[in-house]
Design a protein that fits this description.
The protein has helices at about 35-45, 180-185, 220-225; strands at about 5-10, 25, 45-50, 65, 75-80, 85-100, 105-115, 125-130, 140-145, 155-165, 180, 190, 200-205, 210-220. The protein is mainly beta.
Length: about 230
């Protein structure tokens, strides 16, 4: 038998600086009040977001994705992780507006190494999910590059969300479920590799596919997580 006691703090929540002792907080019914770990990481400024259509953080113009099948040297999204960083993927979502002809459609996200994008494309800008934080992502990002880059060598798969598209279908007929670490029950921890680089690549197969992409990831220094 145990006896756990804490402070009831429902209307007045004290905030103190780091390195201070804190009481565990209870609701008036004795509920232990907690927040999800990922929300705590956001509050620490360690979670970043990426969004793009035809331009970075642009909710206006849709991007044009790659060919109707996955081509490992044609990247819809490529994230290169430096050796000093460990990345934990949290969320991926592709919203398709329309496609040209029926065929494979969806979202594949893999990790691996060796990928080099074609000179074309855009450079997404990662934004900190804590707007006031001065932390910036150390990863290198690119998107919407053409065929004829250097193929990534996959080492693992984060997710595959694949369906068969209907000709001319909009998102309502062709919904691709997002992937989240919360729903999955966990996420890979991807430490950057000094020699070959470690990368995350996303592909949105759809012939004539256009739409938008959203990603969230936590980024740690190697001494923070190992």
């Amino acid at each position: 038998m145990s006896d756990v006691r804490a402070v009831v703090a429902q209307n007045t929540v004290p905030r103190v600086k780091d390195d201070a002792f804190r009481n565990i907080r209870l609701g008036r019914g004795g509920e232990i009040v907690t927040i999800p770990w990922t929300q705590a990481l956001i509050m620490e400024g360690k979670v970043f977001g990426v969004q793009f259509g035809d331009a970075t953080t642009d909710p206006v113009g849709a991007g044009t994705f790659g060919a109707g099948v996955v081509d490992l040297d044609e990247f819809d999204f490529l994230q290169t992780i430096p050796a000093t960083v460990t990345v934990m993927p949290l969320y991926y979502e592709v919203s398709l507006l329309a496609i040209g002809t029926a065929g494979e459609t969806g979202l594949h996200v893999v990790w691996g190494s060796g990928g080099v994008k074609h000179a074309s494309g855009i450079t997404p800008v990662a934004f900190n999910m804590k707007a006031a934080s001065s932390n910036t992502s150390l990863c290198t990002l690119s998107a919407l590059s053409d065929d004829a880059g250097t193929a990534i060598v996959p080492a693992g798969i984060v997710c595959s969300r694949i369906t068969t598209a209907i000709t001319g279908a909009a998102t309502g007929m062709n919904l691709v479920p997002p992937w989240s670490a919360l729903a999955e029950g966990g996420a890979p921890m991807l430490k950057g590799a000094a020699s070959t680089g470690r990368q995350i690549a996303a592909f949105f197969p759809a012939i004539g596919g256009t739409g938008y992409f959203v990603s969230r990831y936590a980024e740690f220094g190697v001494d923070e997580i190992e």
